[in-house]
Design goal:
It is a single chain. The protein contains eleven helices and no strands. It starts with 7 loop residues before the first helix and ends with a helix.
Amino acid sequence: MEASKKSPKSIALTVVLSLVSLLWVYPIFNILINSLKENRFITTTGVFELPGSESFTGLANYVESINGMDFLRSFWYSLIITVSSVFLIMLCCSMAAWYVVRVNNLFSKIFYYLCIFSMVVPFQMVMFTLATTADRLHLNTPYNICVIYLGFGAGLAVFMFSGFVRSIPLEIEEAAMIDGCSPLQIYFHVIIPILKPTIISTAILDTMWVWNDYLLPTLVLDIKKYRTIPMAIQYFRGSFGTVNMGAMMASIVIDIVPIIILYLICQKYIIEGVVAGAVKG
């Protein structure tokens, strides 16, 4: 059987989407090639050129980047903040969504709509009050800033989890309850396995947000003691507007590599989550 031929419309759509994909990928490619060039060659005329024999520096910019921004310490702070924040958001918001859907009383409805409303409030409206409150409650270290991220991430997470929990048949939980499971056992042994695709999809979105966030850590943390990777990248800006572009580009590449690796590893789970939500919704 001969393979069906694609229509001209399908071919044109494929070409257009491929070009759009290249437009999205090109800025990352441009950062990569500039991270391999000497700083003096990264100018307004040479920023789009490939590294040549004179401009190519190998891994020198990466070495300078790692040494200049105290990479290991910044990486540790970013890792602690991201892991603790995403874990707290996934645990608390999935529990809250399960409660909202299954209890379905006046309090749960008010709580749900407050979470949805929090997605509408601009961060700029609360950032100065937030900074003062974080100092008073001692939430200004990498080890407890996750509480603040929980507040900002709860809206989207509760919204996504609630929609998925509504598709879970109540009879499954009733059967587990008849078998003697407590509410916590039902949650961890029944609800969590079913929510796995949605949890991974939401976790990827929150990981990209927290890992690359610059404004919130800058407002809350003591920048003299704690610097995440996005904060440390800014310190390649010198006085009088000078910028070490080579080292900064290398730092940006180092910053995005863990997220790309995480996305490639969890890609199949993200697709499962989208398909499962589409089928069950």
